[in-house]
Structure formats: C-alpha cells, structure tokens
Amino acid sequence: MSKKLIYMDYAATTPVKSEVLQAMMPYFTEKFGNPSSIYGISAENKKAITDAREVIAHSIHTSPENIYFTGGGSESDNWALKAAAEAYGTKGKHIITTKIEHHAILHTCEYLEKKGYDLTYLDVDENGLVNLEELEKAIREDTILISIMFANNEIGTIEPIEEIGKIARKHNVLFHTDAVQAYTQVPIDVEKMNIDMLSASGHKIYGPKGIGFLYIRKGVKIKSLIHGGAQERRRRAGTENVTGIIGMAKAVQLAMDNMEERTGRETAVRNHIIERLSKEIPYSRLNGDKVHRLPNNVNFSFQFVEGESILILLDSNGICASSGSACTSGSLDPSHVLLAIGLPHEIAHGSVRLTIGDETTIEDGDFVVDKLIEIIERLRNMSPLYEDFVKKHQS
Asked: In terms of C-beta density within 10 A (0-12 exposed, 13-18 middle, 19 or more buried), how is residue 380 classed?
C-alpha cells in the first residue's frame, strides 16, 4: 500500500483543478483556431480570450485593456522592469527595490545595473517589512521606478502596498509589484493601492504553468516585450496561449468566488501548525510577520539542524516541503531573504517552508508537525553542536 502524499509546497506550484482542466480541454482539440484568423472558430477563440481578460481585470479592479498575458510571473517581472527602464531612462536611471525580492526581480536588477542603471536595495526589518520612511528618503529626482513585492514567497510577509503606492504617486514615480504569491490570497485593488504595474502567474493558483499576466496602468509608457504580430495590443507578439489563458481565467474565477472562506480555512490550519511548532520544538523561530502574513505560509528555522536534511526525511515520510524559493532549490547558499531579516547563516540553513493549499486539513498539519518533532529530535541527537550546547547549559 502506497504512503499518503502530503503536499506542503503550494508556494512552489499547485495542481491544476479538475474544473480548470475541463475548461481548457476543448481548446486543445476542436477549438484549436488561431484567434488572429478571420473565420468562425477563430473569432470564438478571440471572444474567449476577451472574456478571460475581463475575469482577470475584475479580480484586481481594473479595465480589461490593462491586462497583458505573458508566459508567467518571471516574464512579467522582467518585462515590467526592463521596459520601464528603457521607456523612462531619459528621465533618470534610479530604481528602488528590496533585498528580499524574488530572483526574477533581483537578477533583472543586476542586468540593469550592468546597463548603467543605479539600484537601491532597501533593507527590511526582522519580520521582512519595508520601512516606509526609508523608502521615501531613498527617492531621488532621477528615480523612475519602485518595485516591491506584494508578499514574500519565502516568509509570507505582506508589505504595506497601499502606503507604498501613495508614496510613489506623491513623488510621481512608477510603482510595480510582484504579486505572484499574493494574487487571489489577499484582496488587491490596483486603483485604490496606486499600483502602476503588477505581475501574477497561473500555476500558483491551481491554473496551468506557462501563463501569467502583467497589469499595466493606462498611460504608463511601457515598450513592447516581443515584436512581431499585433497580439496583446502590439505589446507582446506571438499567437496567444489560448488554453493557458482559458485555464488561468477559470482558476481566477474559482479562487475569487470562495476567497474569504478558503483563506479563512488556510489561516486556521496555518495558525494551528505555527502554534504547535512554537510550543513543541525548542530552539525554533517563526520567520516572517505574525499578523501581516499570507494565509497559507509557515516558515520556521530550527537551530542545530540542516534544512536539507529535514526536507529529505520529510520526503521519506511522504511530505513535500521546501527550504525557500523553488527557483533556487539547487543552491547550497542560505536564503537571501532569511539573511536579509537578520538570521545568521547557521540558523538560516536550518529553515523549512510549509505552504498549505485549500484542501490541506488540520489532520495533515498535525501529521507534518508530529514528523517534524521526530525528525528534528533525531537530527539534533546526531549533532555535535547540539550536544555541546546542551552540556554547556546543563553545567
């Protein structure tokens, strides 16, 4: 009999929901027409894309013409930063971001630095929150863009986006946010929050991989990403990923229809796991803000153990978890996010991220916590550092 799989890495990717797959299937077969062609089956597909764009626009309180479909969150991030830098480079070459951004932002910033742009990387506090006074002080006459993530993918901290938007608007600076983790997890209103550009991805919300969008406020002078045809109002050429677009829109619709109930359930499971880990495993630390936190995120550091060893042993018990971003899972370096919130290397190395989904139960949470208690005790018993620590505190 096969062991039950408990998946606790929903921040890395999610399964495609059956309703999403069902909505997509016809577009692989009988509804295969290219939306740019003039015959009937193509016109139907064009209308389906228009309807999907409306669903997504409604989810962030904007107009459909401000939504541009992309290949995913990383592409959207790259487009927002590179195109804004190019379009507004005559006004200035200064860009502000934070030290805890996803690598899709950080590596794009490094690329722009090589092109002559000046980057300011803001510090965050021990909970991962940006200091608004420091942000405002960092703005200069030549500042053209602020890019700060909506919520951190590793530690789950939700940034004060509305306040950041106000500061950006006050100083007439463009504001982009990577909302890949926050989208459909927390309410987003791009008008109220003064967001000029926003990135999101389909595969984090039970939609397919290879699809995302970039919201670009009307009037923002962003150059085309891909040149060629007239698709996406000439800003991103290439035949549309119709199946992906339909799938993402269906996933968005499902997520928005039950958002309050779903995130309430996730928050209850999250809090239960946090409470048990805090009480039952000594020398452990919750990473990220306790209050301003994504409903599905738990990130803990456990002293005297290696995160990689914990993950291997969790996997042997049928539990999928991670130590941080899936995009850096091959790296042996500690998380840049955990170092930015002030953790020393040795504690950052002993960190685990558990991200729950809308079907994760309290029982699943208890099973994972029970296994973590066993695993950490076992690893600490093998650790000379822990042995020395215990001896020192017993004497």
From this structure: buried
The Cα–Cα gap between 12 and 35 comes to: 31
Task: Assign 4 to helix, strand or coil.
Answer: coil
Q: Please answer whether residues 58 and 117 qualify as being in contact, where contact means their C-beta atoms are separated by less than 8 angstroms.
A: no
Residue 256: CB partners within 8 Å, gap ≥ 6? 58, 59, 184
**Contact between 250 and 27 (Cβ < 8 Å):** no
Instruction: Quickly state the pLDDT bin for 324 (edges 50, 70, 90).
Output: low
Single-letter amino acid, residue 364 = D
Share of the chain above pLDDT 90, in %: 84
State phi, psi for 237 to the nearest 5 degrees.
-70, 160
Active site residues: 327
pLDDT digits (tens, 9 = 90+) for 246-276: 999 999 999 999 999 999 999 999 999 999 9
> Using CA of residue 245, residue 250, residue 256, residue 261, what is the dihedral sign?
negative
AA identity, residue 45: N
Helix 103-114 with 73-88: angle, nearest 10 deg? 30
CA distance 81 to 252: 25
pLDDT at position 1, please?
39
Is the torsion defined by CA of 326, 327, 329, 334 positive or negative? negative
Instruction: Say how many CA atoms lie within 13 Å of 43 toward its Cβ.
Output: 3
Each residue's pLDDT tens digit, 99-123: 999 999 999 999 999 999 999 999 9
Determine the distance from the C-alpha atom of residue 60 to the mean position of all C-alpha atoms in its chain, rounded to a whole number: 16
Q: Are 189 and 60 in contact (CB under 8 A)?
A: yes
If you count DSSP H runs as helices and E runs as strands, how many of each does the chain have, helices first? 13, 12
**What is the share, in percent, of the chain residues with pLDDT greater than 70?**
97
